[in-house]
Write a structure and sequence with these properties.
With 287 residues, this protein is mostly beta strands. It has a single domain, classed as Lipocalin. The protein is built from two helices and 13 strands. A hairpin with a 7-residue loop joins strand 1 and strand 2.
């Protein structure tokens, strides 16, 4: 009976504490509504390497263009981001006897949610922990590969994410001289952050044989014939470095470096790809 009474008491303590709060305390719903929201329009360039062992061990290298549309809602306590990105590029590989070229279109849908982790010794640092989900779809073409000229891959990954942010704002006006020309650096809010995404679950969708099925030669091609969706297959890792400058009109400018690398399992033949993105963003405050 004593154990039962102790259990009931432990259940009643949170309710008692909550009842002691003042009636005018801020509710979680009002905090969410007051959290700043942004629409982020992002343009950038990319450098990409990839290799498909099902067709050739050659490494394709090239560059491309990237366009992102992001929806963000964040403050020092929490952060939520949803984005859609599209990238298109051309790539080439050289062997002893020939040069072959390829093109690829990559679409990614991403969602991230982070929560502040308390305990840092200074307010200039902010650490958030949470999770992310990336859904990436790839369409590749290479006419030199004949019956294997078109390739489709999908990578669906759930990450454990961590983000650390450092406030590097200029608090005071500074007078400087450059080549005997004086100039003034006014106070400005700035942030430098890094986010690391470590894989918890990586799923892949890819053909289960070395070459595409010969149904392409028939009147009714079956594009995804004998494709396999494998859970906990392959590997993926991603990181983001952001430098953000806040403007007087509550909007922001952001420069980002993004690294994203992934691969399938080695059965039957693995596919691997790595990207390096440089992105320039304009963040519009919608509140």
């Amino acid at each position: 009976m004593t154990l039962f009474r102790t259990f009931i008491l432990l259940l009643l303590i949170p309710a008692a504490v909550y009842s002691q709060q003042p009636a005018d305390s801020v509710s979680p719903k009002s905090i969410r509504k007051s959290r700043p929201a942004f629409i982020n329009i992002c343009l950038g360039i990319s450098g990409t390497n990839y290799r498909d062992f099902a067709t050739s061990p050659m490494i394709y290298r090239g560059s491309g263009f990237n366009f992102n549309l992001e929806f963000l809602r964040f403050d020092k306590e929490r952060e939520r981001m949803f984005s859609v990105s599209n990238s298109f590029g051309g790539y080439g590989a050289t062997s002893i006897t020939e040069y072959t070229s390829s093109s690829a279109f990559i679409n990614s849908i991403k969602y991230t949610r982070l929560f502040k982790l308390n305990g840092l010794p200074t307010e200039k640092w902010n650490l958030k922990i949470g999770g992310s989900a990336f859904f990436t779809n790839i369409i590749r073409t290479n006419v030199n590969l004949h019956n294997n000229s078109t390739g489709f891959e999908m990578f669906h990954t759930i990450f454990i994410s961590g983000k650390i942010t450092r406030d590097v704002s200029r608090k005071k006006t500074k007078e400087k001289i450059l080549f005997f020309i004086p100039y003034r650096r006014v106070p400005r809010q700035r942030e430098l952050s890094m986010q690391l995404n470590l894989p918890f679950m990586n799923n892949t969708f890819r053909n289960g044989f070395l070459y595409f099925n010969q149904t392409f030669l028939s009147d009714v091609p079956q594009i995804f014939y004998e494709y396999e969706y494998k859970m906990f297959s392959g590997f993926r890792i991603s990181s983001i470095i952001d430098y953000t400058i806040k403007l007087k009109n509550c909007n922001s400018l952001k420069i980002s470096y993004v690294w994203d690398a992934y691969k399938t399992s080695a059965v039957p033949e693995k596919f691997e790809m790595a990207h390096h993105f440089i992105l320039f963003s304009l963040m519009f405050n919608t509140k």
